[in-house]
Structures are given as C-alpha cells and as structure tokens.
Specification:
heterodimer, A: alpha+beta, four-stranded antiparallel β-sheet, three-stranded antiparallel β-sheet, globular, B: alpha/beta, 3 domains, 13-stranded parallel β-sheet, Lipoprotein (chain A), signal (chain A)
Chain lengths: 150, 460
C-alpha cells in the first residue's frame, strides 16, 4: 500500500519540478508587456517568462524582460525565460541565446537589444552587423536568465 | 503513510517559492493592506451608494480603494500621498466620480501592476480636475467603458527613462472613452490607447515626453484640437484603422529621427486641418493603406513627407508644404500615393491663366531624397545645412536617377492656413559639434558629387 502512494507522490513531485513544456504562442494583437504594459506588437523583439502553473508573461523588448527580472529576483522554481530570434521570430531559451546591442535598431522600448537562437543566426542577420555581440550574462547579469533550474 | 505525507510536503515545498505568484499576469490591485491604507478609507467605506463624500483640505497618506458608486469631491485641494506600493486611488465600482484632488505617487509602485495616480477598472468613471505628480502612470483606464478624464494635470517622474515610467493617460480595452482638456508632461507617452475603440480625445496638451499620442490596435477613434510638442514624436498611429483627427498641432519634435506624425500599419484614416511644423520629419507613412491627408500645413521640417513603398492608395490633397528642407523622401522603388492640389513653397512655376493652379506640375525628387531613401547613414545629416547644399548641387548637376513623385495640379498660391508658432523654450544657439559635422558632411558631399560628375562625364 505504501509503495503505490510513494510512486504517486514521486510522479507528482516530478511533474511539479519540471519547467513549463515550452514557450507559449504570441498573439501580437492581444498580449501586453508584463513590464511596461504596452502592446507586444512586434514578434522580432519579444520575450516571455514561463513558470509552472502560471500564465506566461510576455515582454515587448528584451530590455523589458531584463528589467522585470532585476525587479523580481525571487522566481518560482522551474521558471524559464525565452526570447524571440530577431531574424526568424522563433523562440529560444534566453539562457542559451546569443545577443547583440545594436544602437541603430529601434526596439520597442529603446533597449537596442536583439536576441538570436545562436551565434550563427546572429551572424546571418544584417541588423546585427556592426552591433556589439553579448552573451546572456552580459544582458541579464552573472546568474543569467532563469532556465528551469531550482 | 508517514513517508507519503513527507513526500507530499516536499512536493508542496517544491511547488514554488518567490514573489512572482503575487503579481500574476492580469492581476488587479485590490484593497490596500491596513498599513498602506489612507485615513480616508473609513470615510469611503461608511458612505452609502450614490453618496457624495467631501474631502476637506489637508494631506492624507496612504492608498484608497473606491468600491461602491459615489462621488469623491475635494474641497480646498486635499493632497493624497500614496504609500509608494501601488496605485493611490483605485476605482473598482461603476459610476464613481473623483474630482478636485492633488495626488502624489511618491515615485513608487510597479509598472507591471499598473501603479497609477488614479487606476480605474470599472464602467462609467469620471476623473475630473485631478493633479497627479510622481506617479508611474497618471490615470489608467483598464476595461473601463464610458470613462471620462477631463481637466487633469499629470506631471510624471522627471529624470527617468521612458522605459521606467508609464503613460500620462493609459487606456486599455476600454470602449467609448472621453479625454478632454488634460495637460501631460514628463511621462512615457502622453495618451496611450491600446485595444480601445470609439474614443474622443479633444483639447489636450502633451509635451516633453516620448510620444504625444500613441494608438495601438485601436479602431474608430477621433482626436481633435490637441497640441503635441517637444517629444520624440507628436502622434504615433499603429496597427489601427479609421482614425479621424482634425485641427491638432504637432510641433517642435526635433530629436534625431523625431517625427511630427507617424502612420505605421494604420489604414483608412483621415487627417485634416492639422498643423505639423518644426519637426525633424513632418509626416511618416509606412505600411499604411487608403489614408487621406488634406488641408494640413506641413512646415519647417527637414523632410516634410516620408513615404515607404509599403503604403498603398494614400491620398495627399490640398495641403500646404511650407519652407521644408526637402519636400519628400521616398523609401523604396515605387509609390502609388496620389499627390494632388497641394501648395509647395519651393515650386516656382507661374500661373499665367490665373486659375489658381500652377501651369507646370511639381516633380518632386532630389539627390538627397535618393540618398535618404537608400542609405541609412544619410539620416545622420538630416538636420545639417549640407543637406540643402546637396539638394542644390543635384539640381545643378543631376547624376543619379531619382525616384519621382508628381503633383499634377500644384496650387499657385498659399491657402489661408495658420502660421507656425515659435517654440516656447529659449532659442537654441549654434552647436559646435553639429556645425563641425555639417561642415564635414558638406565637404564629403561636394567630393561625392565631384567624383560622380567625373564618372558621368567618362561614360558620356
């Protein structure tokens, strides 16, 4: 009798400890930035933060995600940050993404931060030509963005 | 059994820690905790529905929730000083009126929770004659149909970047709102309208901020008789349809890449009788269709009209373009925009038959337009005398095939339209760095033209 209960509890534990299944789709007509409260209208600059059992938070600018994380250092276990690849608009894990600071590119909240799935995608984007390449820790601080770790 | 309970406790512990859950997306600020509540809360809580609650002069510290229909009237301008943790006045019941108050947000709160001077999340509220300072948002209308905000003053938080503060009046998911006679400064955007229709905005002033008025996904709106000045942009109309606006002034928006009036994915809209003057760029249209601009004055701008080839069936009719450095910048390789019956101050063809229309069409193009339309870096010299020199040189020695636009019936005489007011701030002196940049660019332009002229001569 004890063994099945333990198994069930372990299953529940495993389910709750996992991060979100993946990034949520972005509806540019409906979503509002969780930080600046403006429309998330341009998918090229978007980011999102997902946590188990919570609605996803969308951001209209990588800078908004950065600022929101700085203001809310205590996050639920399993929270994962995602950023849109500026070139493809595909979601990438923020902790593993490549970034560029491009003063010539107007981002929605003027952070001038572009995100990419990897360095190859960054190199292929004309918007990042001449921009300053950055890593996750340079954008989000030494601990980087949340990536599902406890 | 005991081990199972221990595991379940472990599960609960693992389920989540931190403060993120306390500010869920879509959450709404409710009743402030006693430690943050205003002493006026007891007065409100004791009032009968529909009552008038009079607030005498004085200073009241803490936040206030109004959760029943009533009229909250200040006498002698009482001052409500917020806790710094959230919105100072929170309207959560229909048919509430708040008037005659001074509200101090003390620079606190959280943008993500809509922290405002007055936050409305209920139908048919009226916010009247309220002066708000040091608040992240001034007045926030959140799903507040029928709201009226009139004669309010919002002076935001000086010294913060645009991303660190909210709008003067922020309208979200609100049908049928009215914003009149408000004065807004030192906020992110003066009037920000998102996913909200059938609003009327009239007689407001917004200055020294990012965008004076900003529409996003908001159809069927009207704004009239407003003044938007000294900002990154006067008006920004994006992802919206059927916006009608008249007799507004978009003035002195003079920063790098600033613009008086910007359309981006804004369709079927009408701009008439507006004054758009002394801006880096007058009117900017990108990805917009079937818009009509008529009887507007576009004056004293570096570029009067910036037109992307992603626009379609735009009509520019009966406007006056006065004293602009360049009349038009076409970005791309084509345009079907119809320019018809406008007055162009730099068109000098005669009107010998006296019908009021110049005898020759106005062909609008210049080398500088070509450069600006195809070389991003050319924007750097948009405000320099070198741009004028390049334009003059190109007219004398045409070396590039320009993209043309033609007004076939240009007006011969300037229509009777308002003058351009001078900036309210003191005049700007010569900027040594800007002067050096202009002279350098002038020299570079002369060198480019000389080289191009030699190249053209070699091919002849």
């Amino acid at each position: 009798m004890t063994a099945p209960r333990t198994a069930v509890a372990l299953l529940v534990l495993a389910a709750c400890s996992r991060g979100p299944a993946g990034p949520a789709p972005l509806d540019t007509r409906a979503e509002t930035c969780a930080s600046c409260r403006m429309a998330v209208s341009d998918a090229r600059f978007a980011a999102q933060l997902d946590a188990p059992s919570e609605e996803p938070r969308f951001f209209d600018d990588v800078g908004c995600l950065r600022d929101w994380l700085a203001a809310h250092p205590r996050l639920p276990r399993g929270a994962v940050a995602w950023v849109a690849d500026h070139r493809t608009k595909a979601w990438a894990r923020a902790a593993r993404a490549a970034y560029a600071e491009a003063p010539a590119v107007e981002t929605p909240m003027a952070s001038h931060l572009l995100a990419f799935a990897d360095a190859a995608s960054r190199a292929a984007d004309p918007a990042a030509a001449g921009a300053r390449p950055l890593g996750p820790s340079e954008v989000f601080g030494p601990h980087g963005p949340p990536d599902g770790a406890p | 059994m005991a081990s199972g309970a221990a595991l379940l406790a472990l599960v609960a512990a693992a389920g989540g820690v931190g403060d993120m859950a306390s500010i869920q997306p879509g959450g709404l600020e409710g009743r402030p905790p006693p430690s943050e509540a205003s002493p006026l809360q007891a007065l409100v809580d004791a009032a009968a529905q529909g009552a008038t609650v009079t607030i005498p002069a004085g200073t009241y510290r803490g936040d206030l929730i109004v959760d029943r229909p009533l009229r909250l009237t200040g006498v002698g301008r009482p001052r409500l000083v917020g806790s710094g943790q959230g919105s100072v006045v929170r309207i959560r019941a229909p048919d509430v009126t708040v008037e005659g108050l001074d509200v101090d947000g003390v620079g606190g709160g959280d943008l993500g929770r809509d922290s405002s001077g007055v936050h409305v999340a209920a139908p048919r509220a009226t916010v009247r004659d309220v002066r708000i300072e040091r608040s992240l948002f001034g007045v926030y209308l959140r799903e507040a149909p029928g709201a009226v905000v009139e004669r309010c003053v919002v002076h935001g938080i000086p010294g913060k970047d645009a991303g660190e503060k909210g709008s003067g009046i922020h309208v979200w998911n609100t049908e049928g709102f009215t914003l009149t006679g408000n004065d807004l400064s030192d906020v992110r955007d003066g009037l920000y309208i998102q996913s909200s229709s059938h609003g009327l905005i009239r007689g407001n002033a917004a200055r020294d901020l990012r965008y004076g008025i900003h529409y996003m996904y908001s159809d069927d709106n009207v704004f009239e008789d407003n003044v938007f000045e000294r900002s990154a942009a006067g008006g920004v109309l994006m992802h919206s349809r059927r916006i009608v606006f008249r007799r507004n002034q978009f003035l002195h928006n003079r920063g790098y890449a600033s613009v008086g009036l910007l359309f981006k994915s804004c369709d079927d809209s009408l701009a008439e009788d507006n004054l758009i003057a002394d801006n880096a760029r007058g009117v900017f249209l990108e990805g917009s269709y079937r818009d009509v601009l008529r009887r507007n004055v576009v004056a004293r701008s570096d570029v009067a009209l910036v037109l992307f080839d992603s626009c379609g069936d735009v009509r520019v009719e009966g406007n006056a373009f006065l004293g602009n450095l360049a009349p038009l910048e076409l970005v791309g390789r084509r345009t079907d925009t119809r320019l018809d019956g406008n007055y162009w101050s730099d068109h000098d063809a005669p009107d010998l038959d006296g019908d009021g229309v110049s005898d020759a069409p106005f062909v609008i193009s210049s080398l500088f337009d070509h450069l600006r339309g195809n070389v991003l870096a050319a924007d750097l010299v948009a405000q320099s005398p070198a741009a004028a020199a390049l334009g003059a040189a190109e007219r004398a020695f045409p070396v590039l095939r320009p993209i043309e636009a033609v007004d076939h019936r240009p007006l011969a005489r300037r229509p009777a339209l308002p003058d351009v007011p001078r900036p309210a701030r003191p005049g700007r002196g010569a900027d040594p760095a800007g002067l050096a940049l202009a002279l350098g660019t002038l020299a570079a332009g002369v060198a480019v033209l000389a080289g191009a002229g030699r190249g053209a001569g070699g091919r002849a």
